[in-house]
Amino acid sequence: MADPTSDPILGDEPKTEEKPRVLKYIRFDASGTVAHLTLNRPKQNVMNIDMLKEITWAIESLTARDEIRLILLDSSSECEGYFSAGVGAEGYTSHMVFQMMDAFHRVFLAMNEVSKPVVCVVDGIASAGGCELAAYCDIVLATENARFMQPEIKLGVFPPLGAVVYPRTIGPKHAMELLLTGDTLNAQQALMMGLVNRVVPKSALQETVDSMVKRIAEQSGPVLQLLKKVIFEGTWRPFDEALKVSQNIYLNRLFELEDSQEGLRALLEKRKPVWKNK
Fold this sequence. Notes:
The chain contains 10 helices and 10 strands. The chain has 278 residues and is α/β, with parallel strands linked by helices. Helix 1 (49-60) runs parallel beside helix 2 (97-114).
């Protein structure tokens, strides 16, 4: 395994993602005061490294654009039933886990650096990395069809970023329940846990999104950006240090366990894992 202490995403000067030749897995429109980023990898929005790089580039491209008030994150209509099923199975294999984790974490660090409010719309399943992505957004609007899950524990692993994010977003007890059980939350349960802000019927979703976006977009872009920075500092720090510890355990200890390897083999072989508890 690579030494996570030398990981550039946790250094003082994280690299800027190069502009993709073409956006293959997302749609992105930043022509107005709202940057609209749509996950677009039918049918389940399974995230691969290239898709994560596109998301990171899109967010980072807004760094110096004070006229952009907020980011609206949703999924395309071609992915009906899913917000995102998380990262692909290849991202859990020992020879790809570091590259996938690097690409995944850059999305979140880009959100921190750009510091524009992110409104997320979930109409369907948000699983694993998809659930973490939604949870890290500042406002989450969900329909009654939304489902949220972190099933990694059933594969003999845990989500290293989620283990840092959830205690801060929904509290440590809710985080333990979500991560230890791997149970699926319906929209109302997610609302009660504080994972989402509002649950609305699908027929009222567009009106609700438009109203929320309009109210935020009417405010000063730089002020919104500074407000998010202050709230982040007060709520999350020391985030980088916590993420480094989580990544170190995940890469250098978790993947040495027989059960984590068994869980990943079972995922690839489409069978139920047999635990050895070691």
